[in-house]
Design brief:
Blueprint (H helix, E strand, L loop, with lengths): L1 E5 L1 E2 L17 E2 L12 E2 L22 E5 L24 E5 L2 H17 E2 L1 E2 L12 H14 L3 H13 L31 H13 L3 H20 L7 H4 L21 E2 L2 E2 L1 H29 L3 H19 L16 H8 L5 H17 L8 H13 L3 H9 L6 H6 L12 E2 L3 E2 L15 H9 L3 E2 L8 E4 L9 E8 L2 E10 L2 E8 L4 E4 L8 E3 L2 E8 L1
Parallel strand pairs: 14-18
Antiparallel strand pairs: 1-4, 1-5, 2-3, 6-15, 7-8, 9-10, 11-12, 13-14, 15-16, 16-17, 17-20, 18-19
Helix pairs in contact: 2-4, 2-14, 3-4, 3-5, 4-5, 4-7, 5-7, 7-8, 9-11, 11-12
């Protein structure tokens, strides 16, 4: 018996122009990379005419469909799919639902992507010849995952893998634990990937109030940060470790994207690409230093060291990469979304320069038909940064967008988990790029962080982690219909539920015992402090 798992069926009678590999209705396996020799189950029956049962115990498969072929008469009494995950039912602590079926499907796709990729390590995908602990996928999704499941213990384990894979200079890898690639000497210090060594402990500490995870990683994180600070995270200074390559804003639709080759010519990286990489590196240098400052304060360590580092990184970013009017010195960056998002997130511009950058960013989205263009790194900060900078209208346009690229485009095209690429499959064109194409690759599910923190208004305060103090600043939209969220935080159950009654917005929320919340109503700039309890507030929108 041969069992072949697959993520989708072939269409168009095996039309190769649509990227298909077989007759219509057969399982498609080209995206698994080694379809003829891997990701398959062979079983030989003993010949005894009695019922037998078999379940593989030493491997797992990521799939939606299977093809079963036998060379003799076999009667199947049952074929069952057994989910395997490190996220047990008891660990699941958050549920959010809306009045919009498409958004609910997006949330479901995100949750199933987490379940199937959190298996011992944070695999990037569970189906092809890889299943590796890619560190950028990990860090961009970590906060989202903490809302759906209590991942505290899971990340204590994974951060052991991260520390074990750190090099002597302090560099973190692209993959942890060490595997067939992504963690060799030339795969270290890749921006956005290496930074998981700081971002993951900070996120778990902030969400669960767990200082032990900081203590366990502190020596390792300091070693990394010293290395970053000494080199200013400069790409060329780290060539021996990064192999003169950056994944950067992986799989974006923008210029200078690495996977599609836009960052390179025959001689290697383009000068503009190196400038872009250095800008992203310095941005993460500043972000990482700010997280280290927070964790140092929480654990009684040297805060001033990282306050100074934040200032130095900010000054470096402003003087090396930005003009006084808020434009980038490397001209091509002014045509892109991700560079502006990082500048706004880090508050590198102010006054007229900031307003000019926001105007350019608005124009950029408009020119792209209100579609995002961001990849792994840009998407991780996209929605929050837009909202924090007066562009929540664009954020909601992106959430409800159904053109390519968008989250709901994948839903319309049959997604049941989060895709690796915005165009992994297209009903009108068929398969996206086949050499690297996964239909279960959870990174872009980070949009659910924004749904939890902004649409629902449930956000942890780093000054009082573990939801001892909650930032509740919900931003609703009538297209969601209603929203209901319940989160079993480290401090108790938090609830947020809202709906519209005509033009009146009705919000019910619950703050657990021992916690407080700073509450800001939609459209308002003043806040009020609330103690534990349940409340109902209304406002006209």
């Amino acid at each position: 018996m041969m069992c072949l798992p697959s993520e989708l069926l072939n269409d168009g009678n095996g039309s190769k122009t649509r990227g298909m590999d077989g007759p219509e209705g057969s399982v498609h396996r080209l995206n698994l990379r080694i379809p003829d020799t891997g990701m398959q189950l062979e079983y030989t029956f003993s010949g005894a005419r009695k019922p037998v049962s078999f379940r593989p115990r030493n491997t797992f498969f990521g799939y939606r469909l299977i093809s079963v072929t036998v060379d003799n008469d076999v009667t199947f009494k049952s074929i069952r799919s057994v989910p395997v995950t490190s996220i047990t039912k008891e660990m699941e602590i958050g549920k959010v639902t809306t009045g919009n079926d498409l958004v609910n499907k997006l949330i479901s796709n995100t949750l199933w992507g987490q379940r199937s990729n959190y298996l011992s390590v944070t695999t990037d995908c569970p189906q092809r010849n890889e299943r590796l602990g890619w560190t950028a996928d990990t860090q961009v999704f970590t906060e989202t995952g903490t809302f759906f499941a209590n991942t505290d213990a899971f990340f204590h384990k994974w951060l052991h893998d991260m520390r074990d894979t750190q090099n002597d200079k302090g560099g973190y890898p692209g993959v942890a634990p060490f595997a067939q690639y992504g963690a060799h000497p030339h795969d270290m210090m890749r921006v956005g990937w290496a930074d998981a060594g700081v971002i993951v402990p900070w996120t778990v500490w902030k969400q669960f109030g767990d200082t032990k995870i900081v203590d366990e990683s502190w020596e390792s994180m300091e070693k990394f940060m010293n290395h970053v600070n000494e080199t200013k995270y400069d790409h060329n200074a780290l060539k021996d470790e990064n192999g003169n390559y950056q994944w950067a804003d992986w799989l974006s639709y923008e210029a200078l994207e690495s996977c599609g080759g836009g960052a390179f010519n025959a001689d290697g990286p383009l000068p503009d690409a190196v400038s872009y990489w250095n800008y992203l590196c310095a941005s993460y240098w500043m972000m990482d230093a700010g997280m280290m400052r927070d964790m140092a304060a929480a654990t009684g360590r040297n805060v001033q060291k990282y306050e100074t580092m934040v200032r130095e990184a900010r000054n470096y970013l402003q003087t090396q990469f930005l003009n006084p009017d808020g434009t980038f010195k490397t001209e091509i960056l002014n045509t892109m979304q991700t560079p502006a998002l990082f500048a706004l997130k880090l508050q590198l511009v102010s006054g007229a320069a900031k307003e000019s950058m926001i105007a350019r960013l608005r124009r950029n989205f408009s020119e792209h038909g209100n579609c995002l263009q961001t990849g792994f790194l840009g998407t991780s900060i996209l929605m929050q940064t837009l909202t924090e900078n007066g562009m929540s209208d664009i954020a909601y346009e992106l959430l409800f967008q159904r053109k390519n690229p968008s989250w709901l485009y994948s839903v319309d095209n049959g997604a049941t988990t989060i895709w690796e690429r915005w165009n992994s499959y297209m009903k009108d064109k068929g398969m996206g790029p086949r050499g690297m194409n996964s239909f279960n690759h959870y990174a872009y599910g980070c949009v659910c962080e924004w749904i939890w923190e902004t649409a629902a208004g449930i956000c942890a305060d780093p000054a009082q982690p573990g939801f001892k103090h909650i930032i509740m600043r919900p931003v609703p939209d009538k297209r969601l219909g209603f929203l209901k969220a319940e989160y079993k935080s480290a401090s108790g159950v938090i609830r947020s539920e809202w709906k519209y009654q005509g033009d009146t917005w009705v919000w019910k929320f619950t703050i657990p015992q021992g916690s407080t919340a700073t509450v800001t109503l939609p459209g308002e700039t003043t806040s009020r402090e609330y103690k534990a309890g349940s409340y109902t507030l209304t406002t006209n929108l």
